[in-house]
Specification:
By secondary structure, the protein is mainly alpha-helical. The protein has eight helices and no strands. It binds protoporphyrin IX containing FE.
């Protein structure tokens, strides 16, 4: 492996872990909506007004862009390095389902992200003027069954992405250890289920509440 492709893997691992941190905080704030409007709006207001978080928003956008560009480049590069497709090989013998479909689950998340920004970020940022009255918007959006369906599909996609991605990020950064790697793998498995089930069940909770 050349130095530049090792560099790309490191960037991928770092941006992946950064996005994992973001998604964890996001899930935590979303879970506030299960408690009630006051807590959720307070959490949302904090995220919308805290200067550190506000600055981090730009870093997050950059992290996403780098992750996406590098992910696409790595996929093209990996495909080019393997000109003979798995004709005689059983692909499941040496790679998992989630690792083979990283670009597909990634693109699914990306498509959802565009829809999500349009439905939440743009109205909150540019139409309400401030964060803080967002519970009503959340309830309105999640009362739409089509949106909830798309939302759940996207989070199943992200969950599959993280099924491989979580532990792969540690590998890419060279953080391997015979003692800790099995733990990282288990943690990754728990994390991917928490993300998939967590985000989906919050959306479903609000949908059923709206009936
Ligand atoms: C919140 C959203 C996302 C999170 C939390 C996330 C997380 C991760 C993590 C942790 C990895 C493992 C990195 C590594 O192996 O070093 C990864 C890999 C990857 N991600 Fe994402 N990702 C997200 C969104 C996306 C999007 C939108 C795309 C592309 C459209 C994408 C494409 C990829 C690809 C192609 C890989 C595999 C790269 C390789 O060949 O090693 N991801 N992601």
């Amino acid at each position: 492996m050349s130095y530049s492709s090792i560099g790309r893997k490191v960037v991928m691992g770092l941006t992946g872990l950064f996005l994992i941190t973001f998604i964890t905080i996001h899930l935590l704030i979303n879970s506030f909506s299960l408690v009630g409007p006051e807590l959720f709006n307070a959490g949302s207001k904090f995220m919308g007004t805290n200067p550190v978080i506000q600055t981090m928003q730009y870093v997050l956008a950059l992290g996403f862009i780098i992750h996406i560009i590098m992910g696409i480049r790595l996929t093209i590069q990996n495909n080019a390095a393997r000109p003979i497709k798995y004709v005689h090989n059983d692909p499941s013998a040496n790679s998992t389902f989630s690792s083979r479909y990283m670009i597909f689950t990634g693109v699914l998340v990306l498509l959802f992200l565009i829809l999500h920004l349009k439905d939440f970020f743009v109205p909150i940022k540019f139409e309400h003027g401030t964060f803080g009255e967002d519970y009503d918007l959340l309830v309105r959006v999640f009362s739409n069954p089509l949106y909830v369906f798309i939302y759940v599909v996207a989070f199943v996609g992200l969950s599959i992405h993280l099924h491989h991605g979580f532990q792969s990020a540690f590998q890419s950064l060279g953080w391997n250890h015979p003692k800790y790697t099995p733990f990282v793998k288990k943690l990754g498995l728990v994390f991917c289920y928490v993300v998939g089930i967590g985000f989906s069940s919050i959306a479903l909770f609000h949908y059923f509440n709206s009936l």
